[in-house]
Amino acid sequence: MAERPLLARGVAQEMRCVLHWFSGWAPPQRQRFLRDLLAKAVPGKLCPLLEGLEGLSLSGAPAPPPSLFQCQLRLWDQWFRGWSEPERNHFLARLEQVDPDFAAHFYCQLAATAGQE
């Protein structure tokens, strides 16, 4: 049996929270999460900056408040940056358990980035 990494209580709660959110996301939200996950896995090969620019407005009109999904992604981003490499790998393993098809698609997309400059 493979050893599970010891997770700090807060990290384990963060992971449970993200996985709970994930289970309620619609397919377009899961696709957005997939892009974010890929950008974190291979930061030098993808351009998340362009996605960040999508939300900017030049009209001067006040921006609408963020959606619940956008708030969840912001928290996910903050938490993920604070996790160690073993914790991140543990999260991916948990994601595989929750949605094997999504995880397989993630790994396929990740493999497709190999060799890109």
TrEMBL record:
One of its GO terms (cellular component) is mitochondrion. Coiled coil: none annotated. It holds the Pfam family DUF4508. Transmembrane segments: none annotated. PANTHER family: CHROMOSOME 14 OPEN READING FRAME 119-LIKE-RELATED (PTHR16260:SF3), SIMILAR TO 1700123O20RIK PROTEIN (PTHR16260). This is Chromosome 14 open reading frame 119. It comes from Chelonoidis abingdonii.
